Amino acid sequence: MVRRLAAVEGPGRLVVRPTPAGRVSDLALDILTATGRSPAALLTDRITTPDAWLQAAAQLTADQTRHLVIDRAHRLPDAALELLAELGRRAQATVWLIWPTTENDTYVPAPLRAFRDAGYRFNAIDFPAFMRELPPPPRVLTAGLRADTTTPWAEGTNPALPMQDFPVFLAHCREKLPGKTFTAVRAVYDREVHLTDQWLTRRGLTGHHNTADSTRHTRALAARLTFYLRDHRIGPAPDQAHALARLRGVQTALFFRGYLLRWQYETLGADTSTRLLSQLTPRVCDKLRTAATIEDAAATALSVHLSHGPTGLGLITCGNTAPDGSTIHLPVTGSPYAGEESRYLRVPWRWRTHPHATIEVTALQVLHLESDDPVRLPEHAAPLVAAHLAYRRHQGATDTDPLFIHPEHPGSKSPEPGLREAVLRTCYRIHLNPAWLHRSHCRHGDETAHDAAAAGWMHLRGLDLTALSDDIRSRL
């Protein structure tokens, strides 16, 4: 029977075997464990029973679970049946209770019949009938392994590319790489120049930008460039060779538009090309889902993706978050161009007397969040944010309510101090040591108003954007 139940589980289906003689609170933990959470982490976090049921409903919603199968349901108390019925309603899932026999209604308790008569998708069914109603999903035979089409290198992945700067990058590639490998690198490089040139044209930089430049204009362009590189081009690159070739192409396109994107890789240590890639890998996301609560996993995923602490996450609203967690529209802190009307960051008025309010605004401005582009999370990280959004929705949050809240004083205090400790704790659990979260005694600094300028995705990768002088621009 256990093997048959295991065969039933699959996409959209979850099988739970409750702890024998367990309490009602244990059932919620059993459901969370079945979704992939670590039992040890659940015991360490000591979440309350109502919150555990809300997290279970949110995780089922984010996973799009449509069938929840509860084995040995006849051993559960009546209070557990009521909570399961409410869980199915919240998650919009059908709850299947494996019962010894259902041939006669006398074997089915009265509360179960009442829920069924009230319209809940709540079914008590014996195992033979259950296998007829919900047969195992068809087995999918996996095809043979195929080479990654996004990695066209001739002799395999990750060829050792030269580290020379972008003006002489291709020349050194031609000298040191085999012919077919150089052709592949050249194709990636040329495509990146073309895509970046198109992106700059859409941003209003047509031809040579010979007009008088301003610091604010360069900062606005750097803001949009951060989103472009982090979420679309360099961050999600399949390997370090692609990341380096794409970076050199982006640098070339920017140079002919009057901007110098410098990469000071000497400060990054060994394996500098790997530092360009996103640290939010599928393995890290799997660890976050297992070891952290729904809120902590979402906050840590955003912090790792942005390469910055959780400062400013309290200003993100539920309405600015995509239901599937794929994109987040961050608050606008200012006008992208000096000639346009300035836009100001709206901070909850109750926060203005809070000591962290100034740090919130300062760090957001340093992070260059004035871009209208949404933050696009990797495909494997989106479910973490989607689960937390579903959790907030089950709490009754509307579109205007914040995505992250202070646990004791929602709406009146910034959640940043609590989120920061949660991210630190989560990173420690999954053995991740991000430099931007080191404590104040660390020589690398701390995330305060004093050193907030040395933070963010670009800075952690040794990248900075500088406008060329008018004399150099005139010669391009």
What do you see in this structure?
The strands form three sheets. The chain has a four-stranded parallel beta sheet with strand order 1-2-3-4, with helices on both faces. A two-stranded antiparallel ribbon has the order 5-8. Helix 6 links the parallel strand 3 and strand 4. The chain has 476 residues and is α/β, with parallel strands linked by helices. Helix 2 packs parallel to helix 4 and helix 13 crosses helix 15. About 13% of the residues have low confidence. It starts with a helix and ends with a helix. The protein is built from 18 helices and eight strands.
The tally of strands reads 8
List the uncertain runs: 140-149, 206-212, 333-345, 351-369, 443-453
Into which percent range does the helicity of residues fall?
A: 40-55%
The secondary structure category is: alpha/beta
| SS strand fraction | 5-15%
* Rg result: 26 Å
Q: Termini distance?
A: 74 Å
Shape: elongated
Main-sheet strand order equals 1-2-3-4
SSE arrangement, N to C:
HEHHHEHEHEHHHHHEHHEHEHHHEH
Largest sheet: 4 strands, parallel
pLDDT averaged over residues: 78
In DSSP terms, counting alpha (H) and pi (I) runs of 4 or more, how many helices?
18
